[in-house]
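Subject: Glycosyltransferase family 2 protein structure
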Amino acid sequence: MRSLAVLTVRNEAAFLLEWLAHHRACGFTGFLVFSNDCQDGTDAMLDRLQAMGWLTHCRNDGPYDERGIQFTALNGAARLEPVRKADWIAVLDIDEFVNIHAGDRTLPALLGALPGATAITLTWRLFGNDGIAAHEDMPVTDRFTACAPSVIHWPWRAAMFKTLYRNDGTYRKLGVHRPRSPDPDRVAQARWFDGAGRRLGPGFARQRVYSDYGQDNFALVQLNHYPLGAMDSYVLKADRGRVNRDGALGMDYWVERNYCSDTDTSIAALRPRRDALLAELRDDPVLGELHRQAVAWRQARFRRLMEDEPNRALYARLLMTPPARPLTPAQARQMIDHARRGMAKAGG
C-alpha cells in the first residue's frame, strides 16, 4: 500500500524533521512537499531530504491562484507522479499530526478497522498554547499536551477535518480539507467514515468540511492540531501570513483555538519509532546543520519583529490572555440558533 502525505510549507524548517519522522512512523510511505519563498532554509532541507529518498520536493514559486498559495500547489499536484501512484492520500499541514488509536497505531491498522472505507475524516483535536512563551528545540507533540475536550460544542471550526481517501479516481483534484472535483459517475459509491468508525451520509462525499460536533469523533483516529505553538512562534506565524486567503492572524484566531482544559498524551505511543527516525535524520550532517540554523533563524526573526509596535502589542496580548473556555451545551445551542437565524435571513 502506497500512502502519500501532501504538505505545503514556508519558513518551517525547525518543525519539519519531527513531522516527517512522526508520519513515517505511523505508516505514510511517501511525502510530496511544496515550498514557497523560504528564508529559513526549509527549501534547502527539502532538497537534501529528496536526495536521501525521503520525499519529493516541488518549489511553488507562482504565479498563484486567487484562492492562495496552497490551492495553487494542490491544483497542480494531480499531474505529479507521487499522486498518480498513491493508493491513499492525505493533505496535511506542518502543525497537524495523524494520531491513530487502532491496533498498532499505523495506517494499515486504521484501514483494517474500516475495510469498506474509501474516505476517512481526520477530525481536529485542538491543542492549546498552555502559557508557553518561548520556542524550544524539542518535539511539538511532546511539549504541547493541553487540548480541547474530546466532545466540544462550539465553534464549528474546532470540528473541522482533513481527509484520508482512496486515490481511485472518484476525486480528480486534491483539496485542503477534502478531495475535490468528484466524478459524477462514481461519487455515489464513495464510502465515507468518521474517526469513530461511523458511516457518514452523502453530504460528506460532496462538500462537508467539518464533523458533527457535540460527540466524540476520535475512537479510531484523530488529527492532533497545534495551530498556535509557543507565543513567539505565533508572532512569526502572523508575520508569515495565511496561505489560503488574505487577512492577518490576530487574537480572534488565537482565542478560538487556545483550548487547554484537557490533556491528551496518546500520540506518545509512537514516540519510540518516531525518535529512532528523528535521530537518523538529525544525525545527517547536512540536515543537522540546517535544523540548527533554522532554530537560530526563528530566534533572530522574533527579536527583529519585536522592534515593531504592532508585533509587540500582539505578543503582549498573548501573554495577558488566558486559555479559551469551552462553551456549555446550552451556550452552544444559543450560538447555533443565532447562526441559523442569520443564515435564514441572508438566504431569504
